[in-house]
Amino acid sequence: MAVDFLYPPYEVIRNHDKCITCRVCERQCANEVTRYDPQHNRMISDDAKCVNCHRCVSLCPTRAIKIVKTDHTFKTNANWTGDTISAVYRQAGTGGVLLSSMGNPEAYPVYWDKMLINASQVTNPPIDPLREPMETKVFLGQKPDAVQRDEQGKLINNLAPQLELSTPVMFSAMSYGSISYNAHESLARAAQELEIYYNTGEGGLHEDFYKYGKNTIVQVASGRFGVYKDYLEAGAAIEIKMGQGAKPGIGGHLPGAKIVGDISKTRMIPEGSDAISPAPHHDIYSIEDLRQLVFSLKEATEYKKPVIVKIAAVHNVAAIASGIARSGADIIAIDGFRGGTGAAPTRIRDNVGIPIELALASVDERLRQEGIRGNVSIVVGGSIRNSADIVKAIALGADAVYIATSALLALGCHLCRSCQTGKCNWGIATQRPELVKRLNPEIGYQRLVNLITAWTHEIEEMMGGMGINSIEALRGNRLMLRGIGLTEKELQILGIKHAGE
Ligand code: SF4
Ligand code: SF4
């Protein structure tokens, strides 16, 4: 029907004077945008199939291609944008829920960009991180209320199990199935080299990656895929996933078509069966129920591993976190509403949840007020984009951050936001062997190491500039932040002063 026609959002512009018809763009595109026309000896493209992943642009030997956003437009206004109108046409045509991938793209405030970091000048002078020691190591887990000594005055080591990170960054949950074997291998090797952690997500742990267990967080989600004794014992910590920033309040679904081979084996479900994670854990309807699962997992692993509880940032996140801090969990991971995903209903992703900056500030404040901040460490994720975001998160009260989208960018992701199709041209969000092999884990892991190493240097520089020489001294030090362009209420929630004050 004519009403269903939507003009393609991107146009492939090819300079035919430069094109040597090598057909690289044709071979590289899993979306089959381009084909060779022998009659006219030239390449032709179907713009409607283009997802703007830049694979052809990056590999064209003569720089003959560029992708441009179309200037074709609806008669839009501030209320009815082109995307809003197109969505109505698409849903009226299909009757289906709109699906998207990666994080919330809407123009909500990014509070990281509305906070500025302090620097020392005369008194409390800056520290030069190149010449003086700078401690970026952090320990995640429950901390005792007080130091205890025995009768001889020796310290009693009653420390609960901790995760030790060389720098306050971890790779957050991405399951094998939603991302490729080579992407997982890159993350696992980088975590090992960097002495940090990566996270299995809810897809189980591939047998080849048990050797990275010391740097692995194994996840237990509502579907319990791949969860059994050896899996729990393999990781350095266990994460109970209660929620995810990109889709708070709803479960997950990996279609049966993607449950093949090693993915079926790793998830421990039959080939071709849909992997459905229910929205709730069917054994958790209260903090007491959560406490039972926390202690079941601790019991199963002889109380040797910290347990993380991951939740989405939602309206009453501070009260929820207070309950989790009393549940016996060692670490709370909070995922903000800009967190990425392999697939989520678009309306949920774009409208449910709250920004991680506000969630973090209110959780840290609540736990301090209740005198239970030491019960748990706080890890935050949901669009941590650079080292400055990390410094701001720690100053707001986080112990460490989770990153995922920026890690995928380091692996080559071009944020085409088409992960749900399984045709990732960069070999990341795909299981097609010919695409998976495009991501070389040797190069992937090195790029991740480079990224985190560079960020750590920048964190040291920023801490040194503030006259602070350890992450521990920066944590919750909100005096090091000032707001810019924020309302009184926002400043109050963030617990910071306005610039100039
Ligand atoms: S990759 Fe570049 S040079 Fe090769 S066919 Fe495509 S546009 Fe032409
Ligand atoms: S992982 Fe692949 S499909 Fe997903 S946004 Fe990145 S490039 Fe696109």
Automatic annotation (TrEMBL):
Reaction(s) this enzyme catalyzes, per UniProt: 2 L-glutamate + NADP(+) = L-glutamine + 2-oxoglutarate + NADPH + H(+)
PROSITE patterns linked: 4FE4S_FER_1 (PS00198), 4FE4S_FER_2 (PS51379)
Chain residues that bind [4Fe-4S] cluster 1: 19, 22, 25, 60
Signal peptide residues on this chain, from the entry's feature table: none
Top-level lineage group: Bacteria
Domain 4Fe-4S ferredoxin-type: 10-39, 41-70
Presence of the UniProt keyword Transmembrane helix in the record: no
EC number assigned by the record: 1.4.1.13
Keyword annotations: 4Fe-4S, Amino-acid biosynthesis, Glutamate biosynthesis, Iron, Iron-sulfur, Metal-binding, Oxidoreductase
Keyword field contains Membrane: no
Chain residues that bind [4Fe-4S] cluster 2: 29, 50, 53, 56
GO molecular function terms noted in the UniProt entry: 4 iron, 4 sulfur cluster binding; glutamate synthase (NADPH) activity; metal ion binding
GO biological process: glutamate biosynthetic process
Family affiliation: Belongs to the glutamate synthase family.
UniProt protein name: glutamate synthase (NADPH)
Lineage: Bacteria, Bacillati, Bacillota, Clostridia, Eubacteriales
